[in-house]
Structures are given as structure tokens and as C-alpha cells.
């Protein structure tokens, strides 16, 4: 039997707290899970620094990846035998679902920002490069790795396949909302996925949802909205993120300035140089990063040592609301005050903003254009979600942004109470 | 106000998926949580290698420790104002609950076995040594660190206080059963803790449970039984444990033999020497260990490299049932066969056994003697649990043991099919 | 000890699937629960005809009433010792919470509509009349029954007390959303009540919510919105409601026309006469009503017999969307066609509309004016919810209405296929 | 297309709180659910008088019957294509599962006891008699109603089919444990049904369970054990049951004595006469029974009036432990004392016992012989459950019985404190 059709003698199941069980029957899927590149995802947290705010959020991208696979598997079981659905795409969909996050590195957000990387490029590189993943995919079929990469890259010609893992209601989002809600323990984030899966239907170029399931979709959109503001953008996690970013900046800066590290940043050198090899990239997981941070607590450079201590031992920056437009003058004054008290404002006075667009209809040509969710009416017509749902209509296209200014409250507090800079800083920060 | 009585201006809450919220009002508790020794527990998994079997089990000892604290806090709220309860013990109980696992190192079980350590000694050392934890405790009261250590060590004179975290139905066990069930996603492990907390009563030297709550206690005992055999002793996790232990053995052996490491086991040297300093111990967390394992995949020594690759990339040993008494001859033969095919049986043929005693009444003088659970009858008498409960009686004192033999199936399979050693090995292992 | 202060020797607990346990310590509360008027609530379903759509919704007003009591009990535990909170109001609040639905009759909605009753008048009458409830309340204090009635009637002078059970985020609504979601099994309807209870604060004339809990309140508002449209206004339940209403109409009409019942509507006579005594009202529960409906299946009057059969055996009317303004002409034509085929349109062609206002800010002077939910800012100011929450703002004050037309599809289908009236009726109903 | 193969155009789903959704595709099943005999199950509570102890337990046999159907449907989806499974039996299994409780009357237990009925006879009678159910079944196939009746009666030749709804681990038990746990809100009663369903396998004459699923089965057995003693045999529910039984006895006795009822027991006459017609039986639901009880509160006969008041308004008997063997003399004395104080002991001094056998292996020839649960080993052998499971072995075959004596504590308390009979009665009952 062709490798692509080989079934395991006995179905394998993973116990999963979110989907109860994850079922694997295909030899190919089983082999992909067993590769070192996939196992590596166990060493990368799904939510980066969020565990410092919600202590339950210690789950990895490994479990999320299995979850996305499982959701796609269930969707396809439902699609079986329906018009518009080509069963030959099944294995491609499953593989793309499983591997869609393969290129994530440790604390991706910060690394990508500082080193100008894109995890999607690395997903592609791992799938197409000289990896165990690639070897498994190549056995399936000539050109199969390329197809998987295209699906993840959203350039695959069959847009229905793409929409399974990249649309405003895809398997990726459904899994992470449910999973992150479960592990953080928050009470929002739940919605009736079973219902949504039952009413999903394949069309020519997209997945749609039967109109009778609209309310479950509304619930999903609202959950997403709440999760973004309650969990993903939580200011305490962002504080850790800010510190992490500044550590990376500092290491790079020190390296470029010829600083003599007690503990050389060997694993980071290719990142500094801007040419990260696949092997280097794969080797860098969160254990490695944390190892360095612990070591650097003992560096001579005070900024690096302090920031590494803060991150390792959770001594985070405090924050205040901060509106960038209104406060330019105050910002400059704060910046100067920090310099005067000997705190490098580059590292100790950091503004950070988060913004989210909970749902959007199609705005062709605009940046970040997004494909809308379509409902399938009983008569077979398509109806864009926000036209049918009052709730979704009311939040549709409304971008919300949150600005915060981060600073080390402990170091400010340590100054003598009557030092004028301290008084003025607290006044400007509104923390009298 | 004395430090011990200081309350936070605003109660702090941690969102917890198991207990919903963890509440902190005492400044002392808040300060303890903020210490670097307590934060370090975030870098040590609650269930060691279990995440390789149940992928959800990535939670840390940090969250468990908060959970035990919260349970004790709730018990004491219930005890408030009751006879036999001395409210002056409150802070001591809370601190001991929070800190009871402080001395756990990475993958404790294996480290303790190989290096003859006891995590309880380190808990004590951290509490009494020159640590941030000690500094906080000392501020409470002269001799307070010692008291906390005694409670955890079960030598504290007030046995009621001890029983809160060390008895057959203590806050420690209640938290880990519920928490581990939650994160693995298994359906056993649940019991009605709220009910048990409501019927707990303080007596002179122990916590007891009102007889009306007996069935909730039965349920707890059965959950415990199921969790041991389904989760804690799962043969796949034990396979990872076996490999881990063998890695540590190998490193020690190589070090002692003067082997030249590409990547020196610096963090392990004091472990080899048998005199681990507090600083070394605290610095060694799971990130550090995993860093070394990844590095050692490239060592010259084939055994070390292979075992580290297996652990890092989850290429575990297979196993078969193995009864030690009946198979001595076969064991010897297997041992020799492994040598013949070039697999060092010291590292590649490992027997491992697990055993559990689900509940026991008091057997004075016997090894591992355990204090029984007592029910409080409506008339005020005490009744030992197994005398009142048929179910508990039926499993009481019945130790169950499981023996398995672990080996690298992949390396055996690679041998030519007709090689006589391969045939005989498979025959002896019963894996024809 | 005064009756109002008497505590039970041992706290009583009710196992409750929604709040886990309901706790009773006051002798007064225990005695109220034991009265026949309160026990009668077991014989009245919380959701009327909804069990014919969601088969799990068979729960009674008894369990809801206990739930509201329990929520108020928890709120007051939190209020204890806070400014603005007068602990002397405690028992009054608990009693009012427990008894707020006492006057509900069987299938209240239909009975109130047909017989022009108001269940709130009966709540008042039971509390103030010669009932067991009144006897218990009178023992508490001279004038206590009157106070309880005023709280329920929203005329009590202390508006903080009133707001506990009658505001846009009161104990009544919180319980029924959670409870109805639990018993129907729908996945919306959940919100983090524990969080809301923790951030509720008493002010002079209302309960407010700390701003930090805003998102939990948003979630509550959204749950409420979803429950209304998914459950409470479900068109199938409304179909049963329509039939029920028409049965009552028919019985009244027949009675007034001097029709000779095989089974006399004895329990209904005082309802027809418009002067329902307290005893008659209390005696009429859903068992009694269902008894009559079963009996009337055998009446000579075909309409009554048919409608009773439909309700008893769930043979409901079908429905189509129906916009009242646009279809006057068609309505008249339909009406005439129904007459032509021998179906009395008064009973067999029924329009029904439902509408809901999910949340509203204060619109003084307008009909149904509602007190808004106020957030308490960290600085102690009040902020109306829709000004702080984008989500709530977006649905605030937006009334939504749904119109449906109900008819017996089975009786239409039975007509010969080519009968012109059948063809035209199906055309007008759009059910070709 | 033959009626037996007709599928609904669109699958129908029922929202179910226990199984999330209940799926119906077969026209036959849909038609069966719509019959008046099946809809009648909505008017019969699943747990009889248990709602007077656990207020959430107001669910009906209707929802349980749908649940059993759904479980069998899922089992058969799993059986599809497996050896030993004959797909032609599918509809028969589904119909038998749905209809297995059809013959239950109101408060079955008491009615069966007093009137010497067996609900299984009525299930058979409804399936085979002139009912809507029979009409639907007959359309499927000549002899189909008989087959369904045989399956429910356990006499059907294909024992595998029988075992789906009648064995020690059948769909009936699995549904009621989960459902009753859900509605009462107790925390036991849960087990991993999804796991059990996945490891069930058809054999020639029974369903078996793969050995790998043993622990889930253990959990199921333990849940069953806890539910029996915590819920089903709860002494308070049994108190209501005792009163109910005594009401029926009294009515019968009065009727036979020629008592002139104010409110004639018309619906009961055929029960008294011992020849209950199918129509009479079907008409008698719990609404009807409760209607009579309310009416009889006003009867002249004091015993009947009192007992009906007790049942309707939940004024139950108290109870004490009572061991029948040791207390004969005391029993006689109590009996006489009750007569002396004017309480007819026939109605006011009632002993009641409950007993349960949690699991049993096969004991051929013994009364109530039960087919054991068999595990399927990896090698294909069968292993009786209690031989593989320590836990099950330990409770296997151990019958446990509980005896209680019920009496009206309120009427005893009303006697003057020094009346010697009161003193002696309290002494004998041990309620000093």
C-alpha cells in the first residue's frame, strides 16, 4: 500500500484535556509527530510570557498543534461525501494543520521583533529543508512538502483547503481559544465548537457556516474578543515581554560593542549576524534561552544582569496608561529624568501598545485584508456574518488599541523621598 | 503593625484553573511568593516526565504549591472559632503549605535515586539557609523558619498542624490529585473537595472528617488509586524516567572515568562529588538540565549521545511485563544476548517496578507506618475509615506492584531478521 | 434568643448542580422553605413550555428560588463589614430573595395574558395573606411581611436592598441564566459569577461593580443576550405557548357560552369570573392544569380537544417569519382562507412576537425605565457600564423584535393537493 | 425506499446536557419519538421521589430514553464493519434502546409494589398493543414489534443485541448514572463513557471491553456503587416513597371498605380491580396522581388526608437505623405503643430496606443471576472483570443492605413531654 494510505494497525489516541481525545490513524501523521522538529514544540510555550500572569498557562505549542490537527480531522469527517469536498486533499489538510506552527521559536514575538525574523519563513524552511519532517513528507509524494508549505503560506490554489487553517474562523483559532482558556482557567473563551463543526460546509473556495449555527459563531467571536483583552494583551504579560525584548536588545548591543561576556551568547551569534541557519534555529528552544538568562544574571553589565534577574525571578516592570499623542512633552521630560537618575531610558522606560480588530468584513485593498465569515442560508445563498448578526455588526471593523508605559517601580521607590526627580517622575506617571 | 499581621491593602488573587481563585491577604505570604526560590518552582514540572505520555501535564510545582496553600487557607477558614483550633497557628500552616515542595529539584525522582539526595533535606536547607525565603520568615518571628521546617518535616509538636499537609488526606494530596487530573485531562482524579473541606474538623492531634462526609472520602481514596495506576505509574512515563536515570548514571560514570566532555557537566560537578551546595542546588532547574541533554546529543560517547537524543526527542524504550522471581534464568540470558549484539545491558535492559498502597490503617512499628483517616461520628467518637467503609476496607493495606522490563525496540529491530540473537531476544521478551 | 436570630444547630445544605451547595443557617429561612406555599413552587416549571424544545429544562421555580437566595447570601457575606452596608438588613434580603417568585402560577405567561393577572400581585398576597409564609414572617417582627413585600415590589425605601434582586445585574438574573443554561445544556449562559460577586460593592442606593471586574460583567450581558434569543424566545417553545394560550381562551369562551363540559373546569371558574381567591390561586399548579388538558382531549368541542391533544402530546404548530406591517393584505387573505377550509383562524392562525432590550442606560421618564449598571473606578467614581465597555455600548438600548406566524401544518397538509385554498395558503406562507 | 431505510432530509438534533447532542437520522426513530406513548414519558420523573431530596432531580424518563438511544447509536457507529456485528440489527437495537422504559408508570416502584404490576409487562403491552408505537413499528416489518419486545424482555435470540441494553455495563446504566449525577449535581457518578465506548467490541453473544479500557470500567463500577448509596437509596427519598406507598394502600383499603370519597379515585379503579387496561395505564401519569393527592388532602379520612398532605407538601417521616433480626421484641412494643397513642402503626411505623450488589460474576442457577463483564485481552481471550481488577474483585458479590424504620416525628413530638408512651417510644427509637 502506498505510504500515503497506510493506516496504523491500531488507532493511537492522545488524551487531551480540551478535545478529550486526539485520534491518529494515518501512518504519515504518526511519523510526523515523532520527528525531532515536531517534538521540539514541547519546549516552546504556547503563550510565551503569559504564564507569569496566569500560572496555569504553561502549555506548549506541541499540544496546540495536536489540537489544530484534531479539529481539522473532525471537520473533514463531517465534509466526507459532501459536494465541493475533494477527499484527495485530506492528508494535505491534516499535515498542514499539524505543522502550521512548526517554525515558532522561543518567545517568538520578541525574537521576531528584535531579530527581524518571521516564524512563517522558518515553518517553510523546516518543511522544505533537510529535516526529518521533510523526509516524511517527501515519502508521501513528489512535491508534497511544497504543497504543505503553500497551504500554511496561504498561497495554495485550493482556497477551501487554506481556509481550514487560515480564516477568521479556522481550526487554529478555535483550538487556541479553547486551549488557552482551559489552561489559564478563565471563564470566557468557551464556545460550542461541536456545534460549529456540525454546521460547517465546504464551498468552492471557502468553508462556510450554516445560518442555523450563527449564534455559536457569535459566541466564538465574543470569546475571541474577551480572550484578547483579558489574556493575550494582559499588561503584566506584556511587562515580561518588554523585559525580554530589552534583554535581547542589550545582548545584541553588547555583542556589537565588543563586550566580553562571562558566558558567551553562542546560540545567539547567528541571530546577531542576521543569517540564522536552520540548525541554529531549531536548536534554540526556551530551555536554552532560559539557561542563558540564568547565566547572565552574573554578568558585569548591570543592565543585562538586572533584566535577566527580572525575567528569571519575575520582578517585572510596573505600568501606567499612556496615550502617545497627548504626552510627547511629558515623554521627553520623563526620558531626561530617567537619564538623570541613572536609569537608561532605552531599557527602563518602555512604551508598548496592543491592538485588536475583533472581526472584520472584507475591505479589499486595505492592509491586513481579511476574508469574512459567510453564513449559508437555507436557500443556499451566502450572507456575510456582520449583516446577519447585530452583535457582530456592532463590533465589526472597530479596532481598539491600548497604550502602556512600563518602568521599574522598585528602582524609583529606592530613591530618597525628597529627591526632586523622584517627585517629578511620580507626578508625571500619575502614581503619586 | 507587626509584620506577621500585615494585610495587603487590596487582596491579591491568582486565577487558578483548579480552585478558580487563589486568595492572598497576608503580606508575608505575598512576600514568600515573590522570592527567587519560590519563583524557581516555575521551572520544575509537577509531574516530571509525565508530559511525554500526557501532553497536557506541563504544569509546574509553582502552581501546585499555590494550590496547597489555598486548600489549607480554606480549611482554616472553616476551622475558625472551632474548639481545638488555635488561630495563632494560622500563618505557620499557610507558610508550611506554600513551601512544602520548595526543595524539589528537576526530575526529582531520578536525581534523588542517582545522587542519593532527598528533596526534603533541601526544603529544610532553603528555609533555614541564607535565602530570600529565610529572610522573609525571619522577619515574622525569631525561630519561625525552624517551625516551618519542622511542620514540613513532620516533627512539629502540634500534630494537628502537621496533619494538614502530611496525612492520608492532606491538602498536598488533594491538590495534586485534582490538579494532575485537570492537566492530564483524565476523567478520574475528581472528588468533591468542597464537601470534604466542609466536614473536616480539628481535634487535638489530627484533622478528622465528620462521618456524614464518608462517601466523599471514599471517592477521594478511589481517585487516588486510579491516578496512581493510570497516570503516576504509567509505563511510558517510566520509560522516560528510566532513560533519564541512565543518562545521569552515564555522565557520572564518564566523569569518574576521566572522559573528556565536549560540553563539560559544570552544573553537575558538585552532585558527582556528593556535596551539593545550596546555591548549586537552587540553580539547577529543568531548563538547565535540558540544555545539557541537548548539548550532549553531540558527545563522542555513543551511549550518552543516544540516551540524550532519546530523552530530548522522545524516542523511548519499549517495555514488557516482567516478573522478577520467575525469570532469573531468562534475565541472565537476555543480559548476555544484549552484550552479544553490542548493547550495554547496564543501559539498555532496565527493569523498573512501581508499587502503591492505596490506603492503610495504622500498623505501628511497620516501615512507612501511616496515620489512618478517622471519621467523627455524630456522638463524637472516632472511627477508623476502613471500619466504616466497605470499599476502603476492601482495598486497605493491599499493596500492588508492577514490574516492567525496558529496552530499545528500535535497535533490536534494526538487526538482520535471521540473526539468532534477535530471534531469541524477541522470544524471551515475548514480542514475536 | 429572638426568632430572627435563631440559628440551626447544624447548618443545612442542599446539593445544587449550579451553585454546588446551598447553605442555610437561619431558622427563619429553614421554616420558610418548609411552608406549603414555598413547596408548591416544585410543581411549577421555571421555564414553562421550554421543556418541549430543550428536554432538559424540566427544572422548577423551587430550585431557582433557592439559587437566588444562595447568591444573595454570598453577596452579603462579601458585604459584611463594608461601608454603606447595614447588617440589620440581612434577613430581609435573604427572605425577599427566597420568596421573590412565590406568586408565579402554572405557565405564568399565558395565564397572566388570558386572565389579566400579575404574578407580582400574588406574591404580595401570599406574603401578606393568611398563609404559612406569612405566619413565619410575622414571627420575625411586626411589619416584617410588609417589608419583604415592598422589597420584592421595588418600593422599599432602601434601594440598595432592592437592587440585590431587581436591577440589571441582580441575583435573580444571575441565577436564572446559569441555571437555565445548565438544565437546557446550552453552552452560552455561562459567565464568571464568582468574579462578579467578588467585585460587587454596596453604595448608598445601589450595588455597584468594581471596574476591574468589567469584563466579567460584559460576559454576563452577552450571556443574557444569547439566552434570550437561543432559549427564552425559541420559536418552538413559543408555539407551545401559543397553543396553551388558545386553550385557555377556548375554555373561557366555551364556559361563557354555556357549553356543557364532560369534565367541568372547576379549578378555573374563579379565573373566568375575574376574582381569584388566594386559596384557588395557590391550589392551581401545573399538575392540575395538565390533568385538565388530558381530560379535555375527550371533549366534544373539536377545537378544545384538538388543542389539548396538541399540547399534551407535543403536536405543535409550525411557524414562518412574519412582519406585521408589510403583510396586512396577505393576513386578511390568510384569515379568510383558513375560514374557508374550516379552521377557525382565531385559534389556528396566530401571530406572536418577542422582543428584548439586552441592556440599557438610564432613560428617565421612558416606559420601562431601567437603572443602569455602574462601575466603581479605582478613584471611587461611578461610570455607567456602556461608557466603559465598547461591547456593551454597541448593543445598548437596541431593542430587537421577532415576529412569527403560527399555524397547524399537519391540518393544511391533509387537504387535497390541488385544493386551491391549500395552494394559496402555502404560497402566502412561503412554504411551497 | 423501504420505510426502515428512510432517512430524514436533514438530521435532527436534540440538545442534551449529558451527551451534548442527540442525533436522529432515521425516519422510524423520529416517528417513534413523536408518538403519544413516548411523549407521555415526559410526565414521569426518572427518579420518582428523589427530587424531594435532591431538588435538581426533576428530569423525566423522556430524557433518559433519548440518552440510552444515543449511547446505543454511538456504540453501533463504533461496531460498524467489525466482525461479529450484523448491521441488519441496527434499527432493532435503536428502537429497543429508545423504548426500553416505555411501560414505566408514575412512581413505578410504589405502584408496582402495591398493585403487583411489572412495568416490563406494560412496556411489552404498549409495543404489541393498539398504540401509535405499535403502528410505527409494524410499518418497519412484519413481526418487528415482537422483536423489539423480545430484546427488551431479554429473550431475543441474538444475545449480543440484548447485552446492549441489559447487562452489567449497558447503555441503560451508563445513561442513568451520568444523567442522574448531572441533575442531582453530585460529584460521583462520572466516568469516562467516551473511553468505554471506544473499547467496546462485539462478540458472538455479548459486548466485551478491551482490556486496555479496564480502568474506565472500574471507575464505572465505583460510580454505580456510590450512586446507589448516595442517591438512589437516600433515606429521605425512601421516606417519601414510604408515604406514597401507604397512600396507595390506604386508598385501596378505603375503596374496598366502601368509603365514600369526596373525590372519587376514578383513575385507580382498574388498579384496585387488578385488571388494568392499556388505556388506563397509559393515561395515568404523575400529573394525574399528584392531582388526586392534592384533592385528597381534604378527605374525611384522617390517615389519607394526612399522608397526602405529607407527600404534597414534603412533610416526611423521620427515620432511625433498624436491624430487623435483633429487634423483634422492641418492634412489637413500638407497634403497640403507636396504637396506644392513636397512630395506626400500619401507616405510621414502617420499615424499609434497600440492598445492592455492586457487581457480580456469574453464579449459574442463583436467583438474579447476572452476566459478568468480560475483558478482551490483546491475545483475544476473555477475562472476567473481577479476575483482572483488584478493586472490582474486592467488592464483587458483596451484597449490602440497609434497614430503616420510618415514623412521623412531628406527631410524636406533639404529645405531652411526660406522657409515658412518648418517653418509651423515644427510648426505643434512640432519639432521646
Topology:
The structure is a homotetramer of 432-residue chains.
Chain A: E1 7-16, E2 20-26, H1 27-33, H2 36-39, H3 61-79, H4 90-99, H5 108-115, H6 119-128, H7 132-140, H8 144-153, H9 159-165, H10 171-184, H11 193-199, E3 200-202, E4 207-210, H12 214-232, H13 235-256, H14 269-273, H15 278-283, H16 286-296, H17 302-312, E5 318-321, H18 328-340, H19 345-348, E6 350-356, E7 374-376, E8 382-384, H20 385-388, H21 390-395, E9 400-407, H22 409-413, H23 420-429
Parallel strand pairs in A: 4-7
Antiparallel strand pairs in A: 1-2, 3-4, 5-9, 6-9, 7-8
Summarize the structure in words.
Four copies of one chain form a homotetramer. Chain A is built from 23 helices and nine strands. Chain A is globular and about 75 Å long. Chain A starts with 6 loop residues before the first strand and ends with a helix. Chain A has a domain of 230 residues: Hypothetical protein af1432 (Orthogonal Bundle), CATH 1.10.3210.10. The longest helix of chain A has 22 residues. Helices cover 51% and strands 11% of the residues of chain A. At the A-B interface, strand 1, helix 3, helix 10 and helix 16 of A face strand 1, helix 3, helix 10 and helix 16 of B. Chains A, B, C, D: InterPro entries: dGTPase-like (IPR050135), HD/PDEase_dom (IPR003607), HD_assoc_2 (IPR045509), HD_domain (IPR006674). Chains A, B, C, D: GO terms for molecular function: dGTPase activity. Chains A, B, C, D: This is HD/PDEase domain-containing protein.
Amino acid at each position: 500500500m502506498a505510504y500515503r494510505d497506510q493506516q496504523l494497525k491500531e488507532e493511537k489516541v492522545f488524551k487531551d484535556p480540551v478535545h478529550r481525545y486526539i485520534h491518529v490513524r494515518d501512518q504519515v501523521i504518526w511519523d510526523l509527530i515523532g520527528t525531532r522538529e515536531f517534538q521540539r514544540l514541547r519546549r516552546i510555550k504556547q503563550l510565551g510570557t503569559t504564564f507569569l500572569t496566569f500560572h496555569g498557562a504553561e502549555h506548549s505549542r506541541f499540544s496546540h498543534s495536536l489540537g489544530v490537527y484534531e479539529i481539522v480531522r473532525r471537520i473533514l469527517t463531517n465534509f466526507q461525501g459532501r459536494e465541493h469536498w475533494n477527499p484527495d486533499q485530506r492528508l494535505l489538510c491534516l499535515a498542514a494543520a499539524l505543522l502550521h506552527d512548526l517554525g515558532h521559536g522561543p518567545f517568538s514575538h520578541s525574537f521576531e521583533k528584535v531579530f527581524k525574523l518571521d516564524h512563517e519563513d522558518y515553518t517553510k524552511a523546516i518543511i522544505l529543508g533537510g529535516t526529518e519532517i521533510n523526509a516524511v513528507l517527501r515519502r508521501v509524494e513528489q512535491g508534497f512538502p511544497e504543497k504543505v508549505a503553500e497551504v500554511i503560506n496561504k498561497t495554495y490554489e485550493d482556497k477551501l483547503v487554506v481556509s481550514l487553517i487560515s480564516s477568521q474562523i479556522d481550526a487554529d483559532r478555535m483550538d487556541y481559544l479553547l486551549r488557552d482558556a482551559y489552561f489559564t482557567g478563565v471563564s470566557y473563551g468557551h464556545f460550542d465548537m461541536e456545534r460549529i463543526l456540525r454546521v460547517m460546509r465546504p464551498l468552492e473556495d471557502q468553508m462556510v457556516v450554516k445560518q442555523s449555527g450563527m449564534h455559536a459563531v457569535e459566541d466564538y467571536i465574543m470569546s475571541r474578543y474577551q480572550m484578547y483583552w483579558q489574556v493575550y494583551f494582559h499588561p503584566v504579560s506584556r511587562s515580561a515581554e518588554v523585559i525580554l525584548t530589552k534583554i535581547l536588545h542589550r545582548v545584541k548591543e553588547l555583542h556589537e560593542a565588543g563586550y566580553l561576556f562571562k558566558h558567551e551568547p553562542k546560540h545567539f551569534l547567528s541571530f546577531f549576524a542576521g543569517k540564522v541557519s536552520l540548525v541554529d534555529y531549531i536548536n534554540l528552544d526556551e530551555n536554552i534561552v532560559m539557561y542563558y538568562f540564568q547565566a547572565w544574571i552574573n554578568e558585569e553589565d548591570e543592565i543585562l544582569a538586572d533584566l535577566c534577574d527580572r525575567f528569571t525571578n519575575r520582578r517585572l516592570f510596573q505600568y501606567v496608561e499612556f496615550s502617545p499623542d497627548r504626552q510627547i512633552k511629558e515623554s521627553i521630560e520623563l526620558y531626561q529624568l530617567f537619564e538623570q537618575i541613572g536609569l537608561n531610558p532605552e531599557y527602563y522606560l518602555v512604551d508598548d501598545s496592543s491592538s485588536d480588530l475583533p472581526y472584520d468584513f472584507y475591505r479589499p485593498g486595505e492592509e491586513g485584508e481579511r476574508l469574512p465569515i459567510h453564513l449559508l442560508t437555507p436557500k443556499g445563498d451566502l450572507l456575510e456574518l456582520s449583516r446577519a448578526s447585530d452583535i457582530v455588526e456592532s463590533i465589526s471593523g472597530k479596532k481598539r488599541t491600548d497604550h502602556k508605559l512600563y518602568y521599574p517601580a522598585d528602582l524609583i521607590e529606592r530613591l530618597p523621598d525628597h529627591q526632586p526627580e523622584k517627585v517629578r517622575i511620580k507626578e508625571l506617571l500619575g502614581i503619586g
